[in-house]
Write a structure and sequence with these properties.
The structure holds 2 protein chains of 2 kinds. Chain A is mostly helical. Helices cover 64% and strands 4% of the residues of chain A. The longest helix of chain A is centred in the last third of the chain and has 39 residues. In chain B, a hairpin with a 2-residue loop joins strand 9 and strand 10. Classes of the chains: A mainly alpha, B alpha/beta.
């Protein structure tokens, strides 16, 4: 699967079950300006993901995702929206894809190696894994804050010199990688929490607002 | 002395029968003229943090001080004097020109209409949006919408500007210019606390933090951002002075 939109949609569905239009809005909020697919492409992505058995439709409304107040307001006779959730192989494929994306970054590979080591043994594993992610996040935010803002483009003459063009493109590539790392960090924290909850049998409420 | 301080601020919201934590024990101090960016995903608590700093929300715990005075809920009275809050979704009502919209905070404080309008035009020029003065809100491009919102927040002469994710709906090629504008405002000795959802948003700031799950996490103070070469060594912080 090559489409970045498909992977982005899969990532959002893994976060929580969702339906076409909601995914369209969430994708816009998360990746607006980087990925701006028309809604038809979201539905195409859902079809492709379902065909590949990476997601599956939930026949009932997704109780975990729906706002109870919103549900009260919705007329009872309205056609239920088809929510999708990720299958186990969808979650696995997404993890492999993320790992693939990160292969270029030795610092990241080193951190993944340590997380894997921590997950296998040790006391307070979640604490240690979170500390690794926190340290990685510090490195990323430090790097991002040190990237220069290039001089503003002159509105009258938007064309830039060849050297400046390359500089801008290199800078944009580095920022793009950092964006991917930041998204990964948010994902990793949730995964580590979920891992720890499975291990301890707790099912705490997620605290994100 | 710090201009703005948040001390151990927490905030919870009820959503139906559930309770979600928006901010969890957040402490932060902003110095005069400092540009601080907070990177966070949507629903990380980043907007709540700004709204509490502006007194638009009351924290459940902790304290917020601006210029040494406690910031309380100001739903009725507008923002505390000295704070500008940049809301990009400037009301889409027709009928009034952008210049009138930008002048509105001054008119609300009893400034004479002609003076308010003159100041509005001045600030529209400062943010590079003087061409928008006679337009209506619905005629603005996304990038102009941000510039106009900044002008409206600046028009009362604040010492602190709170800016919520200024680039998310702006065309990719215009984002740098918006961030340079924010940088220039801080260089003019107006402190800026800005949220962002992209790495670009923390480029060239004085201090960058991240927020997730309502907790402030990583913090980096920018070194000599403008002279850092494009190639930065990986893996070790030793190269950074």
């Amino acid at each position: 699967m090559r489409s970045a939109v498909n992977w982005a949609v899969l990532g959002l569905v893994i976060e929580r079950p969702s339906y076409g239009y909601e995914l369209f809005q969430r994708l816009e909020r998360r990746y607006g300006g980087v990925l701006d697919p028309p809604i038809s492409q979201i539905y195409a992505a859902l079809n492709a993901l379902e065909r590949a058995s990476l997601i599956e439709p939930l026949l009932e409304e997704a109780p975990a995702a729906a706002d109870p107040e919103e549900r009260l307001r919705a007329p009872a006779r309205r056609q239920p929206k088809v929510h999708y959730r990720a299958t186990a192989s969808g979650a696995r494929a997404f993890r492999e894809w993320v790992a693939d994306q990160m292969r270029e970054d030795p610092r990241h590979v080193e951190m993944l190696r340590r997380i894997a080591g921590t997950a296998a043994a040790g006391v307070d594993r979640a604490g240690t894994m979170h500390a690794l992610v926190d340290a990685y996040e510090r490195a990323c935010v430090e790097e991002a804050s040190q990237l220069p803002l290039p001089p503003a483009r002159d509105g009258a003459t938007p064309a830039v010199a060849a050297g400046e063009l390359v500089e801008r493109l290199v800078l944009a590539a580095r920022r793009g990688l950092l964006d991917a790392h930041f998204a990964w960090i948010a994902y990793a924290r949730k995964e580590i929490d979920a891992f720890e909850q499975t291990r301890t049998g707790r099912a705490d409420e997620p605290a994100d607002a | 002395m710090s201009l703005l301080t948040l001390e151990r601020v927490s905030k919870r919201f009820r959503r139906g029968r559930r309770e979600v934590t928006a901010l969890d024990d957040v402490s932060l101090a902003i110095a005069p003229g400092e540009l601080v960016a907070i990177w966070g995903m949507p629903r990380s608590g980043r907007t709540t943090l700004l709204r509490i700093a502006a007194g638009l929300e009351q924290p459940d715990g902790g304290a917020v001080h601006f210029c040494g005075e406690a910031v309380r809920g100001h739903h009725e009275d507008g923002l505390p004097v000295g704070i500008g809050y940049v809301q990009v979704g400037l009301g889409g009502v027709g009928g009034e020109s952008i210049a009138d919209h930008v002048a509105m905070p001054l008119l609300a404080r009893g400034t004479a209409p002609e003076i308010a309008r003159a100041r509005a035009l001045l600030h529209l020029e400062r943010v590079g949006a003087s061409g928008c003065a006679h337009l209506q809100p619905r005629e603005l491009e996304p990038t102009e919408r941000v510039r106009v919102a900044i002008a409206q927040a600046l028009v009362t002469g604040p010492q602190l500007l709170l800016v919520d994710d200024p680039t998310s709906h702006v065309d990719l090629l215009e984002r740098e210019a918006v961030l340079l504008l924010v940088r220039s405002i801080a260089d003019g000795n107006v402190a800026v606390l800005m949220t962002t959802g992209e790495a670009m948003g923390v480029s060239g700031v004085d201090r960058a933090l991240t927020i997730s799950g309502g907790i402030l996490r990583a913090e980096a103070s920018a070194g000599p951002a403008n002279v850092v070469p494009l190639r930065v060594a990986r893996g070790s912080g030793a190269e950074r002075g």
